[in-house]
Design the sequence.
């Protein structure tokens, strides 16, 4: 009987599927435990070995919890809406729903590409997912509920008095009886006050416009990241170095009317909630910084050019500052280039410079501008503001270090107390519109650097603030600003409302139609509003989103149906929203859908939600810290406010798995630069020449002999192809360049040797490649650890590993690579060692003739090896130290092999202990031992400390420091008893040869040494 992983694993995967082994119950007498993975986006590229790392860890934990008697929910689904599928559809003419389906279920796409399919790949690794609860965010039966949640947000406002979201009807009731003067809500800035009588007198359309200023999801003109190349708005995390992550297209800042989510209403609760959850401090800190709570004051500066106007038309520049104590140190003001006042206050002389600067900065993302602290740029607007106390004119600049969406989009620049303001002032020193830096700190030298500390500050040159410290001056400045009605104390947050519109096709349709330009919600009973068919997925010719191409995309308010677009009459048939929801819509509540995945009427029943409550363990990437993880907490808190979610926080414990890095391979190509013009184009047609790694290293160091060899080979091959080319003249025109080129790792063996023939066949233009080899006639590639990616040709698929070594080997190896939360390089060469371990494990249970397990009573050493392993593995799983568990398995199996242990009393519990890590072989061994049913829910063995208590010690017996023999003695002997036994031992007598030692050194439990 041999270990055949492919046969064993197929058998038990079928068993689990047929018997619904991992199906969780919504009503159980067992305690519940909910383990969740961040569900994948199903791309056509499928899984590489880096993807399953977190899934294997969560699966180990889920299986362990089942062994402990928990009712474990461990579901899986697909985040299947998104931009990649849409871009692929545009490129290939396929429907996104078709490619998404093939990517999940496997098959052949329209292009003839064979797709393994995520589901088959996941099944092959042996995960204990409850597939009966699978969700796909692009299925109408799922996004029906996403649309419903959107409607709830639209019909809600945030009451600061109750500190939660409430139904919009309660706000309307206040308006009906009191107007809005006493309303304490999170809402738009600068809302006009009105009385109850005025509200009742407003037309319905006016009332709806006012309510939009309070709703938790609302339409507003917003500064967005617009990508013309993709025809859509992008989130900050979809932009890298100022271009789109997908496609590398230019991204510009642009104002558009968009749906937004008022996440800012929850800023303080999101901040405080971090104290109640077991997440890594780094993730918490990322969210704290993103939320960005600041305590300070708002200050209003009058725009000087508006002085002649009546007060009601006076324009102000509002700023938020955390240092109102420095108000007298204001030297200039800086507005964000996108600030609405820029176009109004810029003087005629400065208009051209300001326009050019705005156009330039619009191509930089906010993230790029925030990160770039070295570049200093800005333009003077020509306008001045008035200091609230001194009435002095303050020049107004624009600079891209100020962001429109943070605070008010304007700063009062105090160079003496802020490094960035100091650098800006010195950079533009001497220019018109830049005043001398004012120093308002007593006994502080600012000739070379700003003084940004609040400690030991005594304010000077500041009128009524002179002599005060930071706290005293802050309080006094706010009091005086309030007297002037030009400022007040305020808490500010960096967190901005989230743009919720995307100009894409492949996303959730909004359940919204428009009457006279105002949004109306479709009644929940008519959901889902299903994504319509379109002929093409690009924006329309007049710039509308792709849904503008839909022929059937209008709402009939009489029949409550989607009807032909050309029937719109704006009476009973109205246009539907053309934008779709962003990718994070469906992922912001999916964990609750798993709790009751087949409920057609609601996203989850109260009973199911109450039973599962929240996720006990969530595993996923840290890259989602300020995206998905923040939006999920926001939606969960909102649903809790409305009585739908049972808990305030969605995820109790969060683990961020590290990245598995690829070991890239490089081949070194010689290319040539020609200084002359007579042979243009010749080099492109010459054969590609590649040098081995050792020769590359020599050439890089300037080894003339090697350079000359390569050049001569190149010239020889070139003149063979082009006889008319003169060697000497050409040689004088050449300069060699070496380019490292990624080569597919599948073409390289474990000794880093390139398979030349396969390489030549890998790409058409390498068919005639010439190789300059090393002294062993080999081409050795270079190696470098990088992110695993198809573009770097360093991807290793789990399918290949499973086919050759089995899923249990893959699972153990990924856990063995290193601590879960650290990045680690993949090295396929290490796989064979783990595979060998599993074969050695099997040899404890069976040999070529079959089962060799006996009913012999285990020895003390057997029990010690087992219970060391039970203790270690249980502790490791609880602390997520999976790599050291695998080491312990290897130690245990080596010890039991040495002990020649085949005892059932040892090997049966060992199969259970190893089951979370290597479930297939564990199931097989459990079955071979005569057990029925799955090992998956068998109780985890109990550690018994008595088996690790040492009663004897093997002492090394030394003579003058040199160990001559060992003897086993009870640990409870005294020094005197040990000495008596040692001195009577025949081996001691032989060593002493009749002599009496000068000294006998005995350390109980450690050493025995006879001296002299």
Sequence:
């Amino acid at each position: 009987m041999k270990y055949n992983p492919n046969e064993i694993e197929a058998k038990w995967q079928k068993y689990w599927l047929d018997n619904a082994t991992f199906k969780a119950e919504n009503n159980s007498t067992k305690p519940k435990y909910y383990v969740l993975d961040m569900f994948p986006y199903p791309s056509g590229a499928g899984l590489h070995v880096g993807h399953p790392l977190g899934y294997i860890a969560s699966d180990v934990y889920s299986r362990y919890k089942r062994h402990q008697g928990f009712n474990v929910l461990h579901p899986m689904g697909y985040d299947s809406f998104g931009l990649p599928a849409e871009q692929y559809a545009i490129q290939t003419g396929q429907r996104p729903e078709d490619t998404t389906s093939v990517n999940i279920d496997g098959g052949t796409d329209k292009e003839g590409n064979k797709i393994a399919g995520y589901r088959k790949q996941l099944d092959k690794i042996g995960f204990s997912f409850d597939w009966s609860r699978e969700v796909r965010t692009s299925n109408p039966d799922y996004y029906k509920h996403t649309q419903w949640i959107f409607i709830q947000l639209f019909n809600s406002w945030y009451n600061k008095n109750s500190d939660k979201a409430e139904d919009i009807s309660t706000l309307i009731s206040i308006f009906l009886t009191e107007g809005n003067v006493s309303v304490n809500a999170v809402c738009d800035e600068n809302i006009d006050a009105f009385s109850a009588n005025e509200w009742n007198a407003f037309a319905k359309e006016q009332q709806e416009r006012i309510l939009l200023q309070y709703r938790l999801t609302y339409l507003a003109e917003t500064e967005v990241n617009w990508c013309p190349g993709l025809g859509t708005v992008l989130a900050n995390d979809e932009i890298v170095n100022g271009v789109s992550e997908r496609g590398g297209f230019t991204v510009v800042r642009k104002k558009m009317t968009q749906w937004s989510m008022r996440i800012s209403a929850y800023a303080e609760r999101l901040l405080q909630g971090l104290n109640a959850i077991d997440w890594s401090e780094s993730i918490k800190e990322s969210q704290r910084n993103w939320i960005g709570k600041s305590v300070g004051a708002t200050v209003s500066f009058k725009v000087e050019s508006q002085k002649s106007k009546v007060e009601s038309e006076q324009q102000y520049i509002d700023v938020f500052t955390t240092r109102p104590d420095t108000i007298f140190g204001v030297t200039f003001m800086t507005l964000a280039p996108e600030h609405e006042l820029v176009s109004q206050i810029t003087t005629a002389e400065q208009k051209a410079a300001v326009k050019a600067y705005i156009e330039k900065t619009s191509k930089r993302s906010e993230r790029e501008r925030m990160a770039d602290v070295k570049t200093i740029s800005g333009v003077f607007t020509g306008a001045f503001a008035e200091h609230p106390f001194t009435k002095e004119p303050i020049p107004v600049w624009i600079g891209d270090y100020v962001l429109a969406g943070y605070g008010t989009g304007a700063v009062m620049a105090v160079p003496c107390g802020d490094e960035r303001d100091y650098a800006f002032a010195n950079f533009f020193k001497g220019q018109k519109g830049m005043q001398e830096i004012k120093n308002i700190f007593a006994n502080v030298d600012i000739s070379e650097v700003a003084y940004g500390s609040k400690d030991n500050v005594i304010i000077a040159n500041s009128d009524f603030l002179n002599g005060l410290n930071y706290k005293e001056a802050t309080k006094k400045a706010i009091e005086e600003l309030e007297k002037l009605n030009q400022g007040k104390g305020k808490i500010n947050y960096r967190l901005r409302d989230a743009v919720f519109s995307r100009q894409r096709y492949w996303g959730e349709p909004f359940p919204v139609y428009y009457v006279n330009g105002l949004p109306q919600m479709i009644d929940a009973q008519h959901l889902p509003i299903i994504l319509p068919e379109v002929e093409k997925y690009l924006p329309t010719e007049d710039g509308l989103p792709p849904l503008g191409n839909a022929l059937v995309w209008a709402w009939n308010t009489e029949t409550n149906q989607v009807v032909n677009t050309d029937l719109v009459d704006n009476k009973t048939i109205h246009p539907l929203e053309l934008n779709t929801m962003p990718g994070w819509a469906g992922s912001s509540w999916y964990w609750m859908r798993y709790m009751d995945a087949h409920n057609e009427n609601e996203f989850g029943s109260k009973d199911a939600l109450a039973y599962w409550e929240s996720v006990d363990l969530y595993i996923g990437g840290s890259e989602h810290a300020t995206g998905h993880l923040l939006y999920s907490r926001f939606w969960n808190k909102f649903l809790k406010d409305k009585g739908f979610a049972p808990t305030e926080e969605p995820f109790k414990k969060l683990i961020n798995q590290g990245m598995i890095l690829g070991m890239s391979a490089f081949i070194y190509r010689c290319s040539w630069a020609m200084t002359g013009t007579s042979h243009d184009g010749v080099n492109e047609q010459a054969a590609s020449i590649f040098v081995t790694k050792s020769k590359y290293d020599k050439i890089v160091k300037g080894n003339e002999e090697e350079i000359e060899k390569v050049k001569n080979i190149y010239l020889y091959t070139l003149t063979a192809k082009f006889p008319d080319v003169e060697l000497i003249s050409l040689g004088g025109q050449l300069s060699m360049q070496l380019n490292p080129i990624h080569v597919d790792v599948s073409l390289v063996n474990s000794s880093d040797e390139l398979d030349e023939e396969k390489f030549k066949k890998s790409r058409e233009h390498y068919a005639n490649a010439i190789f300059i080899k090393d002294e062993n006639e080999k081409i050795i590639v270079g190696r470098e650890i990088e992110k695993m990616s198809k573009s770097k040709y360093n991807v290793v698929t789990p399918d290949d590993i499973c086919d050759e070594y089995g899923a249990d080997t893959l699972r153990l190896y990924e856990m063995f690579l290193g601590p879960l939360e650290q990045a680690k390089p993949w090295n396929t060469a290490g796989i064979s060692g783990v595979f060998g371990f599993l074969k050695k494990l099997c040899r404890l249970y069976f040999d070529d003739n079959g089962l060799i397990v006996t009913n012999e009573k285990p020895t003390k050493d057997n029990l010690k090896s087992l219970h060391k392993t039970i203790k270690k593995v249980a502790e490791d799983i609880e602390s997520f130290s999976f790599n050291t568990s695998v080491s312990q398995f290897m130690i245990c199996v080596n010890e039991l092999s040495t002990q020649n242990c085949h005892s059932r009393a040892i090997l049966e519990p060992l199969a259970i202990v190893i089951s979370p890590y290597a479930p297939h072989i564990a199931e097989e061994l459990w079955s071979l031992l005569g057990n029925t049913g799955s090992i998956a829910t068998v109780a985890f063995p109990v550690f018994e400390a008595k088996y690790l208590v040492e009663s004897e010690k093997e002492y090394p017996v030394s003579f003058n420091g040199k160990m001559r023999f060992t003897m086993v003695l009870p640990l409870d002997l005294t020094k005197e008893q040990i000495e008596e036994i040692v001195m009577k031992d025949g081996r001691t007598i032989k060593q002493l040869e009749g002599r009496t030692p000068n000294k006998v050194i005995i350390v109980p439990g450690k050493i025995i040494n006879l001296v002299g």
Observations:
- Residues 373 and 420 are 8 Å apart (CA to CA).
- Confidence is low (pLDDT under 50) at residues 676-685, 727-732.
- The longest helix spans residues 860-878.
- The first strand starts at residue 32 and ends at 37.
